[in-house]
Sequence to fold (457 residues):
Amino acid sequence: MINIKKLLPLILIVSLSFIQCNKPAKIIPIEETQDTLLIEQKAFTIISEKGINVINDSLCQEVFIPFDEPVKYCQLNKNLFLYGKYYYEFNTASFVLNKIGVIPDAEHIVFIPEGRIILLKNSVIMNSRYNQYTLLSNEMSLVNIWINPFHKYVYALDSLGYLYSVDYERRILRKKIFTGTIKKINFFRYGSRIYLNLDNSFLICDFETLNIIYKKNTSVINFTEVPLKNLAIIQSLPNAIEGISSIDYKTVFHLSFGDTINDIKSNGDSLFLLLSNKGEVSLFSGNKKIKQLETVSPVSRILLFDDNHLIYQNEHIYAYDMLTDTTVLLSKKANALYAFAFEAPDSIPKNIKTQDKINYIEEIEKKIKKKTYYSVQLHSFTNITSAKNSMKKDKDAIMKQSVFIKKALVKKKDYYRVYAGKFNSQEEADALRELLLKMGYTNDIFVTAIYYENIIK
Fold:
């Protein structure tokens, strides 16, 4: 779940010369919007030398914003941050690009909603709009920093190979461990687990304590995660993958192939893709191959894979619709590509005047805000019976807080999510999460804002 501001609907529709969209807009009077279904939608953001191009779920262009200068770096963290000579913030709810300021002289910079975190030679500085804090000061020089996109943590690596975990909200150094050179860091399971690819080993660590949950005594080539299947997919050899259980971290399956595997991508739910050295893309569920995708030409790189789309690159950027087996040219060139989700009413007025649109959005925001609370999401199921069974166990364990199920519609598929607590502030929900962790719940649970309607008791 995301910030309330991201509940703003998409209101700008621009014709795209190479895509035809014939889906008519459905008009809803404002007085009827309280019963409008909230669904999760996704937008694809293509960053090219010319500007930002936002494509919606139907592969129609929403808006194009040109750049005044070449962009060297991009980072998605709730909003999209970009910089060249200056740095910019692209609001992923309103699609507005704001120039923030001049890039400071620093070794590395990561952007957060509160400001930016800057790596200097021997220190990590948090620079907000009004204050500046030193998060970490070290005798040894620091060589890199990473931001956790799901939790308010930053990680710094020094020249000796020690990794530091810092809570930048509370400005507390949580842990320091020796890792050696880090080739790559990924954040999975809502950022509660960190995947570290090192020179001679592969680690899965807790995001706060950096405690090692799983270790493989070899460096890996590719890795991804399939949360609903409780699987981590790891490629250690050029032509083989193994599925590791995310519960007990034992090997579930091992698959070998006659061709080199170039990449692995998961849709985050239950499926994953394999890209071979020949440019062929195959779709898997667990250790079973579902189909081989019929792309228009050999694929050189998988950029993004979600429930319905494979966005890939060879000479140009293409989107392959897996439901219809059709391919659309999205862009001739791209420096980066991101996808961000938001919640919006499934029916949005699109042919009314600008001021009326603004009034409509304000009405929607007011109604949503009145019924939005903070809760701790415990589980997510595709089966209502499993969700109810889990809810009963959670109610027995969590005596003083409400436990409930809320149905979510994602890409026309039903999910049943189990929540605990109903709070007006995030701090109260955070306190409940800390208590649940002490009770034995795993780090997969997380605090989120929810629209408190259509609750399944």
